[in-house]
């Protein structure tokens, strides 16, 4: 009876932890629930994975990686552990190894018989294609996105990376089409997912020399948050062209400050937003 109750409690605490980790982004609350699960079962794979991921999100560092590694030692094909290990490696700018873990996660998700595999499939394609973009391989990213569109046709996040890949291939007008598709859907969850679509569209317009509209995009990217250095960096470039040197310098130094705080993440995205 005690074992049954303990197993139930572990599952409940892990469920609550995953909710706060993925749905409300309350990483401190998520961590508290994963810790409760691990107090009962120190080898709970979901508990270990969740604890490591929550720590990584709170500290914006790889401090939680050892917990995810322990989860993978116990269950080397656990979908969540593979996925979050890929995320941690991607944040460390280890895009080669991150892509390996996302490919393993993709294989596991596609062969999975439970709903979690199907739910995560779009996220895996998104993250895997983003690693290819960060490795300066937009062609490979596009192939990955095309497969993702077949397997999860309703996952709109893939449109972001499609636009970014086309930007890298200097197909700016095509890229704008996909960024506009995302913006026109007015999906609050998607628009708050990240500001890459606003920065991406701004970069497209910049290269097409439509500086006023590019500036509007970078302002929007900054407005929606996440303090992405590239938003301020590109805004400074536009302001210089528009002869507003004082504001351009302010934006440049803001970008430099933000980049110093999130160096690994910035190095990865700098390859894409160029």
UniProtKB/TrEMBL annotation:
Example GO BP: anaphase-promoting complex-dependent catabolic process
Record key words, sorted: TPR repeat
PROSITE patterns: TPR
One matching Pfam family: TPR_8
CC terms in the record's Gene Ontology section: cytoplasm
Repeat region (TPR), residues: 195-228
Keyword DNA-binding: no
Top-level taxon in the UniProt lineage: Archaea
Protein name, as recorded: TPR repeat-containing protein YrrB
Gene that produces this protein: yrrB_2
